[in-house]
Amino acid sequence: MDADKLNKEYEFTIKIKRYDPQVDKAPYWKDYKVKITASTTLLDTLFKIMEEQDPSISLRYNCRSAVCGSCAMLINGKHGLACKTKPAELGTSVIKVEPLPYLPVIKDLVVNMDPFFEKLRAIKPYMITDEANWPEKEFRQSPANHRAVDQYAGCILCGACYSSCITVWTDKNYLGPAALTQAYRFVIDERDIATKERLKLVDSEDGVYRCHTSFNCVEACPKGIKPTDAIQGLKRKIAVQKIKSLLRIG
Amino acid sequence: MIHKHQVLIIGGGIAGMGAAIEAKEAGLDVIVVSLTHPVRSHSTCAQGGINAALGNHPEGKDDSWEKHAYDTVKGSDFLADQDAVELMCKEAIPRVYEIEHWGASFSRYEDGRIAQRPFGGAAFPRTAYIADKTGHQIMHVMYQRSVKLGIPIVYDRLVFKLARNEDRVTGAIALNLITGELEAYQADVVMIATGGYGRVYANTTNSINNTGLGMVLAYRAGVPLQDMEFVQFHPTTLVGTNILMTEGARGEGGYLRNRLGERFMKRYAPEKMELAPRDIVARAIWTEVLEGRGFPGNYVHLDLTHLGKEKIMERLPQIRELALDFLGIDMIYDPIPVQPGQHYSMGGIAANKKTETPLSGLYAAGECSCVSVHGANRLGGNSLLETAVFGKIGGKEMVKFIQEKGPHNDEESVRKALEEAKQEVEELLNKDGDEDLFELMRELRETMKEYVFVFRDEKGLKTALDKIENIKKRYKNIKIKTKTRHYNLELERAISLGAMIEIAEAITYGALYRKEFRGAHYRTDYPKRDDKNFLHHTLLYRQGWDKLPKIGKKPVVITKWQPVERKY
Questions:
Q1: A119/A240 same-domain check
Q2: Which of A72, B36, B37, B119 is deepest in the core (most CB within 10 A)?
Q3: Residue A92 sits in the same domain as residue A187
Q4: Are B112 and A157 within 8 A, CB to CB?
């Protein structure tokens, strides 16, 4: 590695959408000029600004390695994790940073995630089994089923997909991509026994049928999860369940 | 207003949620108060797996919890309390099954049983895993279970003070970041489950909120800290950012190579090679670097190129992505530059195998506690296990405590703590001195990295202590620029720095006291284990902000394994 090249600093203008509802009448943009290297993440850039220029900026953070889901925000109009985004890779020296849209702003980049978690709770986001008759050891689960579940269990609940979804913006009761994806995660888990109940929960106007497959959620997800696949999967399972009911075989 | 509950749990990681679940299932009124939402906890960062002698691996048929216990005791350099280790290793098996029953989708064998991989210092492959995202999923499963049970959780709360009276703990005070107001919680029992202090070091794998404030809550309330000199440095963290590259990478067959291309572990652990315990591998890497066989920039190579794309994508997808994102290196084709970095705290709040602390009604579980199951060095895969097992045990013990001791009605002590806390925050917000808060934090973290790292000696430790005392004095003279209370992170950092300084002092003071080499604590001026003088736990009793702690000793519990020389 070439140390000089690695340490070379470039100047960026970070425009942060500031808003303290207790003090400000409306959100406003504040610009910060900052020198960072090509490998500096946006999260570290924000810390640098806080430490050297303005410690009054508010944001959530923790793991700085894209697994805790704290620092989802809007970066130059796109959803992303601040810890996973490098300003130098965005192709512009002016970076606009905003809180996740469609969630109430607490202050600056910190939003109230309650609506997001309420919808997650609505789909019963936990495995349902016959608890009185648990096996002595593990439930058997095929490697193929583990892999299928794993695709969706990797969700970090950062809220990026939820806040990118046009339907979430227009229908406040819509469950949204993250909750539906988790519903599917349990529906396909061969250890779970509540498939019928789960499908009923999402088989509604505010459930799977509200999804207009605009794929914003797929683009927004920082973990490469495809909520639209999960939602389509739920629709198929619901259809199969209905046919089975008609034929009285399930 | 005072919030009243039977059980108050501070911290929503795996240990805290495990305790909350037990207490809730017993019908108690529980609340979890946490700085972050549970799924944002540092528990999510655990990668490689959780140890339990399930015997599922083809080479693990002869494994048993007793063998797991012996490996743990040997790994601890015989400082762990053997009764607690036996309990943990025995409970590991039903606990892993329980977490699986709650929904954890472990990696599997063809027959559907939980897969296991080899890990450092273990005689058998006994680490159950979910690719390299084990902590993430177990954390989510704990949260899912809490949703099922309807456990109330509040977050964006910085708990920074305990309330107590002469007899017992009575509650805690939190700064609600959202409103900026203080909140008082009164409870019959309190558990601290706030994780480690990694951020006291400049080079750490830990999350940003891991400041050690939770440990200091207990310390300031009169509970001793135990074995603080024992700090685990993980051998393989990404150069620069010190992001964790799981031990699972070596468990799956990865090699460590120096600048000359040598698998240098042959010189340090000829039998176990890359799968020697972490203290040994970290020291080996740092020796290579110090003796000029590392790469410029102080690192060696973690080479996985021979494992093949399929295995890496299936077993180690997360660390591949991390190395790609943060260094632009694809481990399928190129070796990864790694160096040791602070990773884990073997020490913590003095607690016993019931997670009880010496203060009646106060419990501590997970990394913030010192039970002690890790002694002088923790084995990989045993920290998720500790949080899972002792969180649950702590929950059960708290239920028993309430059944036996009943509630307290000492609202007065909680009000008093609230008033004191208000004054402390007021004083901090009014600070208008010359010292820069962030500069002090930087100096503290660099001091620990420089002088209290893998190799230690009296001169360096004394230098560190002087620097810490200097930072302590200057801390009184900081400036807080942000005077508004609403989500004031500068105030949060200032409160946390006060705790970080006390933690750094405790680690360094303990390291100066322990004139021997044991596990992760290597004194170049005393390079031999000294069972005659130091086969005991170190206790540190706080004497006040301006004074050094008082040192006490606690005997090591030995059930069946007498200390022998540790070879791998």
A1: yes
A2: A72
A3: no
A4: no
